Amino acid sequence: MIYKKVFILICLISPLLLQAQIEKGRFFLSGSIEGQFNRNKSTFTTVVVVNNDFEQIALEAETTINRFNFSPQIGYIFSEHLAGGIQFSYLYELQKNDFSENVNIQLTGSQQQQQQFVIGPFLRYYTPLTDKAGFLFDLSLGYGLGKETQEEDNTEVTSADITTFQASVNPTFYYFVTPSLALEASIGGLNYSDVDREVNENQSNNTFQNLNTPNESTNFNVSFGSTFRIGLNYYFGGQEKSE
Fold it and tell me: Which end of the chain is more exposed for a tag (fewer CB within 10 A), N or C?
């Protein structure tokens, strides 16, 4: 008897769940959390103090990068396939370098910490597979301000103010749990960034200086497989359907 009731309930709810989910004129709020973890061997061109003089050498390091990004968005659907809006994001990144295998310097480790607040527009192109699921391609631009600090053996030696311009394209899978609530998941994309650093403290206090981190830098990378992002979208508004 209970199975019959469950079957009837599913039959009543199914038409509601199979409505078109992406509709022109609707708004949506979303928030996503992105985490990234990388560990690899790196080669640094560095300057160290030897007999009260600076000497440029190459060091091998085991580098660990932890990255966290939280990005809320508000958007508007222009058509069945196209949407756009504005997004905000907070970025935290920690890079640790282990130099313990290098016997020619006393420094055993360094770390670089970065925090940023970013704002910018975004566009989305939806490609539905069914009424409830599909893929979207997210193009976003961002302008950010933040701060970066560098430590040597747990002692801060430099800090800098950061200005960034960012652009990214991320293919994403979405699934509507209800007509108003959708889950999104992505495993990376294409990323571009232009970074300008203004150093606040005298870098001559460093015993270690990473010459691979200039005051101005441009970076392009493909992060498929090394980044995981999961998000939740709430869709609301739009015209009510007539009976």
Answer: C
